[in-house]
Amino acid sequence: MTDINTLSVNAIRVLAADEVQKANSGHPGLPLGCAPVAYELWGKHMKHNPKNPKWANRDRFILSGGHGSSMLYALLHLFGYGLTKEDLENFRQDGSLTPGHPEYGHTVGVEATTGPLGAGMGMAVGMAMAEAHLAATFNKPDFPVVDHYTYVLGGDGCMMEGISSEAFSLAGTLGLNKLIVIYDSNQISIEGSTDIAFTENVQKRMEAFGFQTITVEDGNDLAAIGKAIEEAKADKTRPSFITVRTQIGYGCPAKQGKASAHGEPLGVDNVKAMKEFLGWPSQEPFYVPEEVYDNYKALAAEGAKAEEAWNALFADYCAKYPECKALWDKFFGEVDAQALLNDEEYWAYEDKAVATRALSGTMINRLKDRLPNLFGGSADLAPSNKTHMNDVGDFSKDDYLGRNLHFGVRELAMTAIVNGIELHGGLKAYGATFFVFSDYTKPMLRLASLMNLPITMVFTHDSIGVGEDGPTHEPIEQYAMLRSLPNFNLFRPADATETAAGWYLAVTSKTTPTGLVLTRQNLPQLPGSSKEALKGGYVIADSTKETPDAIIIATGSEVSLALDAKAELAKENIDVRVVSMPCIDLFEQQSAEYKEAVLPKAIRARVAVEAGTDFGWGKYVGLDGAVVTMHGFGASAPAATLFKKFGFTVDNVVKTVKSVL
């Protein structure tokens, strides 16, 4: 290294160590070991402009090992992304811009919220897929307006987590050559040497997935790191996997190479010893020489020049291809919610019994013509989930223009990839699987909620209506699981109008992910069903009395059952209100006046009907109410048999209503 390069690399190390030490909390090991990789990549190879962090054609960088956040914050500070020295000094403190793990939308320059190991790997694959599709859609000869790389850095833990294998297997299959994975191989985890639990040949695994594999033996060798990155870029048919052999905690004599360097402050004396070992010119915390700032400023200026060149290219492109500019604006603009709300053709339906999964398929195919950037698919279940878009092709290694995604049987990676596609920008992403397998999607849905990502997940086969497949495939507790997730709309429609409402909410949402929970079995179209479903809960059939005798609250396939029970109760002069509650999350966002109008507090005789557990319904039925729900797992039999077996019958709902009167 030249002196300025040495100083610039060590500035990252020193700032990261000082951040962790001042907070008395954090993970210094990765930053100390990976600082040369970070400096070489960000300074010499990555296309980015700190003055415009959202530049559309920037390279993306994801720190999958999010515990190493102090390194990322040091980079953002040194390159001039707006993080001040005071921000670094407030690392891991309440309200700071430097939280313990990187948070998208909170800190400028952070491309994804990471922390759960391996999640960043999956999201990086999604970003690379988005880049490939947008490039195929927009690029013209001599006008590569979409042309950037996705870099992701992670360590042994990321490679142990199954999500990385799921995601990289698909990335290799798709030949995503703009994806470059950097593996911080220090062979240390929290419990000690990785040899106690992880002895596989990672490079051979990645080679089997279809990656080009490159190894850098010395993680301090900037020239070797740079050569590896350029070698990765040169491969035009495969994604690349660069193993960099690093030493955790490098530069701290008492800690380097040890597990204790991973997740605890180095200690005041060890920070002092590290600065002496590195030849750092000052022991003052957070000190950085001016020549280092000048170097980073010069490197950042190169990024600004790259964007200026792209801006000129894009202006010429727009002038030559105005129809492409109009399409670009559609892809990167907002959905016209009002136009969709008033689109009669979108909301039209036939008056016949249809499964809501099939109705959802109809909506997807209506939307794909209205939203040219709708991009998604299923975890090997498109024929069952009804998520295939007609006449738009399949996204594959041979055709990145296709809009149908085939994720394979990889629900966890699918959801991370969908997150990555949405994070990239320009596309409306969705995934799909059976509702019972939402368990496999949950960790990445949680990240979507944290990041305010309006992704859509289609969950079909939503209840004991799955029937013959039995309890392993019959979701009962999944409603409660996903309703408990903050900033997540779980929407279970009862018919065509409500299904259209669910999709409308999904594609017009700006900050909240949506889960659409859909039936396998056919359901009737319901009188009284309306766009009021957009409020999450509404009166689908009211009492003729000023004050109803009771209220039945139902969701999805059980709404028609509730309406049948209402008719039966009327024969005995019991006049009830039926409330359809497709989305509790949305209902809770309505005004107190609206909620009181739908569910008056004075009416305490209430029954909730849903083919899932009763968890959560107590809030709506109260101490005096009752539920018709599941109280255990399902069984294997035809759906009609199971609904009867578990009490989802008109007689039982009628009996339950009477019991609360």
UniProtKB/TrEMBL annotation:
Ranges for domain Transketolase-like pyrimidine-binding: 354-525
SUPFAM superfamilies in UniProt: Thiamin diphosphate-binding fold (THDP-binding) (SSF52518), TK C-terminal domain-like (SSF52922)
Site feature: Important for catalytic activity: 27, 262
Gene transcribed to yield this protein: tkt
Binding residue positions for substrate: 27, 262, 357, 384, 461, 469, 473, 520
EC primary class: transferase
Species the sequence originates in: Megamonas hypermegale
Residues holding thiamine diphosphate: 67, 115-117, 157, 186, 262, 437
Pfam families on file: Transket_pyr, Transketolase_C_1, Transketolase_N
Cellular component per GO, a single term: cytosol
Cofactor: Mg(2+); Ca(2+); Mn(2+); Co(2+)
Residues spanning the signal sequence: none
Subunit structure: Homodimer.
Sites where the protein binds Mg(2+): 156, 186, 188
Catalytic residue list: 411 (proton donor)
Name of the protein in question: Transketolase
Task of the protein: Catalyzes the transfer of a two-carbon ketol group from a ketose donor to an aldose acceptor, via a covalent intermediate with the cofactor thiamine pyrophosphate.
Cofactor detail note: Binds 1 Mg(2+) ion per subunit. Can also utilize other divalent metal cations, such as Ca(2+), Mn(2+) and Co(2+).
Keyword entries, A-Z: Calcium, Magnesium, Metal-binding, Thiamine pyrophosphate, Transferase
